[in-house]
């Protein structure tokens, strides 16, 4: 156990959780210069055991996903709150002492990219959120896990706050410090629970898959994710949505402002459907009447005018062809046998998930399941098909036999 091992590891069901209001040992000063950063590097090099790691971004406020605060904790080194901004977003001084220890994060995939941007990359990790899922716990947010397993209550957090703000308020820093203060103890309890259930090796495979996952490929035609786009069917109107989305994205990137704060999706859809024929007509629409938008009227109208002038062959298609199966709702009409295979597979996996206390989506990725059921492997090697879809060995061992049977199902 870590230096918090004097706390009760698992709270009795009837016990009232203890509020965790201040960091043990007090709130550390924010590390914001090279001298302090080198001192922290030395302290963490002299520490022992895993390192709790967290990062705060300004999602919803900034275009970038950069880290605006990095929190660290290790036995023998206490807690460090590091501000990457005055340090030029370069924390590589910390890389050597953090290279070998296991990192403990909650929802690791959300933070690994921004940590890599500042020069910090783990060689091993433990994800407490995923561990909770594999352990079959009903609520896997950090707060509920801490309350259920440690008997502590974290105060309502500031995770959705604008962490690009400076100076950072003290209560935000307290929140950030407490997040890493509980991670090491939580990791030990979850590891013990997984070991008791015979799932620790499963978890280790999952953690390594997260650690080594390649960066996500850019989404083709990301403008199609504009909220409310289902209301737009005609190619010319879709072109207007695309033009406004791209104009907004350019401006948001230049100003490092979240796109929705530059222009909401609802305004993009409204302007595309209204098809205003002049800047004045655009400025008459509700969102565009505001002072900040009035200054950009010509900019937005230029995007709409460009879309209106596109030749037919440059207009977007109403739908985008994919390399995957059609929507499941259409399977019964398109391929009744495939629908029967998927139904049989889902039933078998639901039973397995209940038996093993693991969510079905953690047994096999839903998209991979649909692909295998829609187009079963020609050679019948379900295990190889799952491996090709990046399923982990533990998943293949459990799921392949069930899918082999499910793929024999036929429509009645």
Write up what this structure looks like.
It is a single chain. The protein is of the alpha/beta class. The protein has helices spanning 34-46, 95-99, 112-117, 128-134, 142-150, 170-181, 183-196, 200-212, 235-255, 259-262, 265-274, 279-283, 291-294, 297-308, 331-334, 336-356, 360-363, 366-374, 382-388, 393-406, and strands at 18-20, 30-31, 48-56, 69-75, 78-82, 103-105, 125-127, 152-154. β4 and β5 form a beta hairpin. α16 (336-356) crosses α20. The longest helix has 21 residues, at 235-255. The N and C termini lie far apart (57 Å). Residues 1-13 have low confidence and may be disordered.
Low-pLDDT regions: 1-13
The CATH homologous superfamily of the largest domain is called Ribonuclease H-like superfamily/Ribonuclease H
Distance between the termini: 57 Å
CATH architecture grouping of the largest domain? 2-Layer Sandwich
The chain-level mean pLDDT equals 94
Q: Within the CATH hierarchy, at the fold level, what is the topology of the largest domain?
A: Nucleotidyltransferase, domain 5
Strand order of the largest sheet: 2-5-4-3-6-7
- Binned, the helix content reads 40-55%
Global geometry: flat
Major β-sheet annotation: 6 strands, mixed
The total of helices stands at 20
- How many DSSP E strands? 8
**Cα-atom Rg, whole angstroms?**
25 Å
Task: Please indicate the count of domains.
Answer: 3
Order of helices and strands: EEHEEEHEHEHHEHHHHHHHHHHHHHHH
**Category by helix and strand content:** alpha/beta
In terms of DSSP E residues, the strand content is 5-15%
């Amino acid at each position: 156990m870590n230096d918090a091992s004097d706390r009760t590891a698992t709270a009795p069901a009837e016990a009232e959780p203890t509020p965790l209001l201040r960091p043990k040992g007090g709130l550390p000063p924010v590390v914001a210069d090279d001298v302090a950063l080198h001192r922290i590097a030395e302290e963490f090099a002299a520490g022992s055991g895993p390192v709790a790691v967290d990062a705060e971004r300004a999602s919803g406020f900034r275009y970038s996903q950069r880290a605006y605060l990095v929190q660290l904790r290790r036995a023998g080194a206490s807690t460090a709150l590091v501000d990457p901004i005055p340090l030029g977003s370069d924390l590589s001084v910390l890389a050597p002492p953090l290279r070998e220890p296991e990192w403990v994060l909650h929802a690791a995939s959300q933070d690994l990219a921004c940590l890599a941007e500042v020069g910090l990359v783990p060689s091993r990790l433990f994800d407490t959120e995923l561990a909770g899922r594999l352990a079959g716990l009903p609520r896997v947010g950090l707060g509920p896990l801490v309350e259920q397993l440690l008997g502590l209550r974290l105060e309502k957090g500031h995770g959705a706050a604008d962490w690009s703000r400076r100076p950072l308020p003290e209560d935000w820093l307290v929140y950030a410090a407490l997040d890493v203060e509980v991670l090491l103890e939580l990791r030990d309890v979850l590891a013990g629970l997984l070991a008791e259930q015979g799932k620790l090796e499963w978890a280790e495979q999952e953690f390594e898959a997260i650690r080594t996952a390649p960066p996500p490929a850019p989404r083709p035609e990301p403008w199609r994710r504009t909220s409310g786009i289902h209301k737009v069917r005609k190619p010319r109107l879709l072109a207007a949505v695309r033009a406004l989305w791209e104009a907004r994205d350019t401006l948001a990137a230049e100003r490092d402002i979240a796109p929705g704060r530059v222009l909401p999706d609802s305004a993009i859809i409204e302007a595309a459907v209204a098809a205003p024929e002049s800047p004045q007509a655009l400025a008459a629409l509700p969102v565009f009447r505001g002072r900040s938008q009035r200054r950009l009227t010509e900019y937005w109208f230029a995007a709409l005018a460009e879309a209106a002038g596109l030749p037919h062959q440059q207009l977007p298609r109403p739908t985008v062809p994919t390399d995957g199966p059609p929507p499941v709702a259409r399977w019964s009409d398109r391929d009744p046998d495939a629908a029967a295979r998927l139904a049989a597979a889902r039933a078998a996996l639901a039973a397995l998930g209940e038996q093993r206390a693991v969510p079905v989506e953690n047994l096999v990725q839903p998209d991979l399941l649909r692909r295998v059921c829609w187009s079963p492997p020609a050679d019948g090697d379900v295990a190889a098909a799952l491996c090709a879809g990046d399923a982990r060995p533990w998943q293949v061992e459990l799921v392949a036999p069930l899918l082999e049977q499910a793929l024999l199902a036929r429509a009645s």
